């Protein structure tokens, strides 16, 4: 099968680098274009990029010339790691020109006709693309978003529990410094410290979570009817967002029933066979002190969510801990998984991938 050439917007930044890393040797896609700021445009990617991930710049992209954001791009599929301000209008402009933009930026997540996709939890929300194209007069373009990185472990853990009726949730996060981008939080602020504020994330947790857990009906997403309260904290770990979650469930299941529900959770077939989909979306860890950020963030190549410490909560009924890798599952990895779903559902025009090929 001939691979599809794709472009990465914001390719020199930390999330852009994660896109580059995860797309290296991908069975369906290859990076054909890298887009950066006016400062980096016109220079070889490998020379201008301050590579902050493990290893080095992949040989396949090192010699690509960085293109300016206001330029023209050949690739239909674009992965966006743009900052919010740059993404807000540019992503829509590019979709209007026929590109499919899979974005990690926050700008368009809550727009009613933009799918906020987490494929294991809400693959059917992809149908919003049809509404989006009809509303905007787009034939081949689209904007598809993935969520805030802290909402990711919450939604992954709660998706199988929707059948019990989720009435209320209280969320307290411990978020890695890589969530702030690079160079991130100043060392004198985060070393030997915990910061009880992450700009904008509490509001995102209280809205994006309900939207992703909602059901698709009558050409729209009906948000989950639940009450959410979130508190977000920045902690001195490099990668991995850990959340403490307390929930009230209408059906009052036993603890063993909840654990069995997590253990038996599988993605829909159309998602489970995608190259970036983890074999096990969820892991329940029985140890009293797990999941731990350093030990468990890379589960499923960084695409799985680890859950532990389910116990009774005297206020809401149940409480537990969940953990996801914030720059893989919570950012670039989810955007790539979204794009794979778009491909098999026929939203990338003539590109027809072979489902079931070996995973990345």
Task: Please describe what this structure looks like.
Helix 1 packs across helix 13 (328-344) and helix 7 packs parallel to helix 9. Helices cover 28% and strands 22% of the residues. The chain is globular and about 60 Å long. The chain folds into 2 domains: 4-147 and 331-344, NAD(P)-binding Rossmann-like Domain (Rossmann fold, 3-Layer(aba) Sandwich), CATH 3.40.50.720; 151-325, Dihydrodipicolinate Reductase, domain 2, CATH 3.30.360.10. The strands form 3 sheets. The chain has a 6-stranded parallel sheet with strand order 3-2-1-4-5-6, with helices on both faces. A 6-stranded mixed sheet has the order 10-7-11-14-13-12. A two-stranded antiparallel sheet has the order 8-9. It has helices at residues 14-23, 45-48, 59-62, 84-96, 119-122, 128-136, 151-158, 187-190, 201-212, 255-263, 269-272, 293-296, 328-344, and strands at residues 4-9, 29-36, 66-68, 77-80, 100-103, 142-145, 166-174, 215-217, 220-222, 227-231, 241-249, 282-285, 305-313, 317-324. With 360 residues, it is an alpha/beta fold.
